[in-house]
Write a structure and sequence with these properties.
77% of the residues lie in helices and 0% in strands. Helix 2 packs across helix 19, helix 10 runs antiparallel to helix 11 and helix 19 runs parallel beside helix 22. It contains 30 helices and no strands.
């Protein structure tokens, strides 16, 4: 039987080649920075343009897609074949250099528009125009102006722009982590996490919602993407929550908030966390360890919210008889935990580099998937294709953000922005934090978390460091709010994804999401004022912050839902909300006051409960 060539076959072959390239360089050493990054970007562009070719019915678009794919291949070949010449001509590019440099910028803008929408490339175009015509602007925005040659050289013929640190991180280990996540999903290992959470928590009050939180946390710590996490776990957990009695809006909100938390949960977190490690020049495991306490408080809050809501609404658990007992599950499939366990041990105990830890975890996942998950060649091919398609957003975001960062560095805008913020805030750290919070959430509404973090890591985080904030806390603050923007209206991407599954209205779902995630808006202030929470300081203070944070989340959730020991009236509920917020704040005396007043409510309710039972 004669086989016909198809675009799908070509796409699959390229996706596999892309994955094998990264596995090879991870095992045997990465190439020269420009080679590694240009090949990575070239693969991503070719895959993107071929998908555009496949999805379009217009002949002109198909022709343009083929031309752009060939152009992407051509600039990669140019870097490979004339690399020494490009390096020797640095700062004095010839006409061919400028032609290919301009081509890379245009292709990057088109590629990013297709994968992330118009906002990020639009911002990049504004920054390009600023670099060209900023000499005509007044005040702090004024600079001496730069030629097209200088701009192209900075943006696309060096490692200061498109091929900068952010794309470098994507080109080394972010892709491997995405392949790891895809393998977990395609080999049924990810499904084990969901089944385990449902069996362990399903029968308790509001069990499906609790299972959604745990499974989304586990899955999200591997996927590192809020929207992908909603899509991966929400199709299972949201219908279960609705079946138990949760309103569609609340069910969607639980999944959106739990999935968003995956970006801040070790061991993997979101792509921006890896870039943070590179910017700060510290091992990735320090980022992961620093994220533990904020992540625990975040999920404790969401868990408490669904528990007390279930108690207040008298919602029962679910029937889990279709799943084997936990002992049987662990005995028969407990080995499925091994890939994630290996990753955690290699990253945080052995302290291997993120790339080494990820590639070894990929090998373990493949072995476990074949032996215990029944995975065959088809599943591995699907994993390579899925990883490649998932990586496109990250590659587009990091390459386009490189354009913006290059202009910020070229024009000195970062220092000017810092001076401007300090002037407006009159050197008040709290006002600077507020401005950065709103800026992070505003950027995060229109951009993926990675470019939102990158822009403010260059513009805003240095301002906090100038004010004496711990560098990790400063960068984590910006990253955290960029992630939380996924549940912040009016553009809350995780909420939109959850609404499509829950069949719920956006605004009520977004409202519940903000209520569920409110403690997450306070936690970043905690670790800025007390960096010990990130294990940068006293361990005793870190543990105290963890305990008060968890208790505060419980009190807050009890007050919001009108249930503590028993159903509460409006005044005790408001007292519990106040107590919860006081305990989440970094001030120990406020935490002590919060604990006392919550304890009074607890005692009163216990006494009332005994009287009722008597």
């Amino acid at each position: 039987m004669k086989k016909h060539f198809t675009i799908d076959n070509l796409l699959t072959a390229i996706c596999i080649a892309w994955g094998l390239f990264h596995l090879y360089t991870a095992f045997f050493g990465v190439l020269t920075a420009m080679w590694q990054r240009s090949i990575h970007l070239g693969f991503a562009m070719v895959v993107c343009f071929l998908i555009m070719f496949k999805e379009s019915d217009k002949k002109l678009v198909k022709v343009l897609c083929c031309v752009m794919a060939l152009a992407a291949v051509s600039f990669v070949l140019y870097f490979l074949l004339d690399f020494k010449g490009i390096v020797s001509r640095y700062g004095r590019p010839n006409n061919i250099d400028l032609l290919f440099g301009g081509l890379i910028i245009v292709l990057t803008l088109i590629f990013t528009t297709n994968k992330t929408g118009k906002i990020l490339p639009g911002i990049a175009v504004v920054f390009i125009l600023y670099a060209m015509f900023g000499q005509y602007l007044p005040g702090l925005l004024n600079h001496r102006g730069y030629s097209v040659t200088r701009i192209i050289n900075q943006m696309s013929l060096s490692t200061e722009g498109i091929f900068g640190t952010s794309l470098g991180v994507s080109a080394t280990y972010i892709y491997i982590f995405m392949l790891f996540g895809s393998l977990l999903t395609k080999t049924n290992i990810g499904q084990f996490y969901i089944d385990f959470a449902i069996k362990a928590l399903g029968k308790s009050p509001g069990g499906p919602a609790k299972a959604a939180i745990v499974s989304s946390g586990l899955f999200g710590s591997v996927s590192g993407s809020a929207v992908a996490n909603v899509a991966g776990t929400g199709v299972v957990t949201i219908p279960l929550m609705k079946k138990t009695g949760y309103k569609p809006e609340f069910a969607g909100a639980v999944e959106a908030v739990a999935s968003t938390g995956g970006q801040i949960v070790p061991p993997m977190m979101g792509a921006a966390a890896f870039i943070m490690a590179e910017i700060l020049g510290i091992p990735y495991y320090e980022i992961a360890i620093g994220a533990i306490i904020p992540a625990v408080i975040y999920y404790a809050s969401v868990f408490a919210m669904v528990h007390f809501r279930a108690k207040a609404k008298d919602l029962s658990g679910m029937d889990t008889s279709h799943l084997p007992a936990l002992k049987v599950m662990l005995r028969e499939k407990g080995v499925m935990v091994l890939p994630l366990l290996v990753l955690i041990v290699l990253l945080m105990v052995v302290q291997l580099t993120a790339m080494r830890a990820s590639v070894y975890s990929v090998v373990v996942t493949a072995v476990v998937g074949i032996i215990f998950g029944g995975a065959r060649l088809k599943e591995f091919i699907e994993a390579f294709v899925d990883a490649a398609k998932s990586a496109l957003v990250v590659v587009a975001s990091t390459s386009c953000a490189g354009i913006i960062v290059s202009v910020i560095n070229l024009t000195g805008l970062g220092l000017k922005f810092s001076s401007m913020m300090l002037g407006v805030a009159n050197n008040s750290m709290f006002l600077v934090l507020l401005m950065l919070m709103f800026a992070s959430m505003l950027l995060g509404m229109g951009l993926p978390t990675t470019p939102a973090y990158l822009i403010l890591a260059v513009l805003g985080a240095p301002t906090l460091i100038t004010l004496g904030v711990d560098p990790l806390a400063a960068h984590m603050f910006v990253f955290y709010f960029g992630a939380v923007s996924m549940i912040t209206p009016p553009v809350a991407m995780a909420v939109f994804a959850a609404c499509s599954i829950a069949k719920s209205k956006f605004w009520p779902t977004a409202g519940f999401s903000v209520l569920l995630g409110l403690p997450a808006f306070i936690v970043p202030y905690m670790f800025v004022y007390e960096p010990s929470m990130l294990f940068h300081g006293s361990t005793a203070v870190a543990i105290a912050a963890l305990v008060t944070g968890i208790l505060g989340s419980i009190f807050y959730a009890a007050g919001i839902n009108g249930y503590f020991v028993r159903k509460t009236k409006i005044i005790p509920s408001l007292i519990l909300i106040a107590a919860g917020i006081m305990m989440i704040t970094p001030q120990l005396w406020l935490s002590a006051v919060g604990l006392v007043i919550a304890g009074v409510v607890f005692v009163i309710q216990k006494i009332d409960q005994k009287k009722t039972l008597a």
